[in-house]
Amino acid sequence: MKKFALITGASGGIGSATAIAMAKDGWNLYLHYNKNKAAMDRLIRKLENYKIEMIPIQADLSTDEGISKLLNNIFHIDAICYVSGISHYGLFVDTNEQVFESMWKVHVYAPMVIIKSLLPKLMKNTRSHIVLVSSIWGQTGASCEVVYSTAKGAQISFVKALSKEVARNGVRINAVAPGAVKTQMLDMFTAEDLQMLEEEIPMGRLARPDEIAETILFLLSEKASYISGQVLAVNGGWYT
Asked: pTM above 0.70?
């Protein structure tokens, strides 16, 4: 039987790497994106080599309308990979409430609504899988990224709690907590900033998107069949 997975944020660095890894493994994919249609078109061209079914879905997950649009395009589903994310860098005291709302909506509210709505479909399967991409800052917190850290920490708490509720229904839910990854999210930093960042990381380099993608693929596989409610840190030893 064909297996289908939803990847939110599939046009981003980690999302597209995840889509490629899953396509190689035979997954048919619902590919969500918001604004970057050019990146989505490039990804679809790459995925055409793998002879899978692909359903691109444009939706703004910071709005209720966007969440509904996404859900209305999902039919059979075996896995959810929630990779969508936005960042904000700055002092907490200078951060306006619109940032609070948008960060909470994309990182916490949207995945909760999407997963709640799709759980009945997932529970029809013998086994189903959910993976949220959180962050090292959800584990330990970061100065100047207080709102982001808060939202990512909430994702981890959600994973831990829901895993206990749905385990008997054959649904496993886990999180991946990347450290610094070489994606557009780091474009706000200068080359000097990135060099200083790499010097802080024990392995001396940033993560590649494919390293995060392979971790997600592991959590979706039968090799992780007894793992649920866990957070896999992929950070080069930066936080243990």
From this structure: yes
